């Protein structure tokens, strides 16, 4: 889940939790909003951990041998 879509889930969840007063029988809109916010927060954390792991520098050491000439 990308960071942008996770932030979108958080925003939609917050709107459903705090701004919507509609009632649907058999469905608690506030609970759905909280679930979306939790899923969005988890998505952001996973995205940040994945990004941190992907951008960790991997240094490779390459040994170069030079030919040396011995004086005669």
Describe this structure in words.
- There is one protein chain.
- This protein has two helices and no strands.
- The protein has 72 residues and is mainly alpha-helical.
- The protein has one domain (3-54).
Structural features:
58% helix, 2 helices, rod-shaped, 0% strand, mainly alpha, 72 residues
Topology:
Layout (H helix, E strand, L loop, with lengths): L2 H16 L10 H26 L18
Helix content: 55-70%
In round numbers, the mean pLDDT is: 86
Tally of distinct domains: 1
Category from helices, strands and their pairing:
mainly alpha
Number of helices: 2
Q: How many strands in all?
A: 0
Largest sheet: none
Taken from the alpha-carbon principal axes, the silhouette is: rod-shaped
How are helices and strands ordered from N to C? Answer: HH
Radius of gyration: 26 Å
Which residues form runs of ≥5 with pLDDT under 50? none
Strand content: under 5%
N→C terminal distance: 67 Å
Seen as an oligomer or otherwise, the chain set is: single chain
Quick synopsis:
The chain is mostly helical. It is built from two helices and no strands. The protein has helices spanning 3-18, 29-54.
């Amino acid at each position: 889940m990308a960071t942008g879509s996770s932030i979108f889930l958080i925003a939609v969840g917050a709107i459903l939790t705090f701004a919507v007063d509609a009632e649907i029988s058999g469905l608690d809109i506030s609970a759905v909003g909280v679930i979306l916010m939790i899923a969005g927060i988890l998505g952001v954390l996973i995205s940040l951990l994945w990004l941190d792991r992907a951008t960790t520098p991997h240094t490779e050491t390459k040994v170069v041998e030079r030919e040396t000439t011995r004086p005669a």
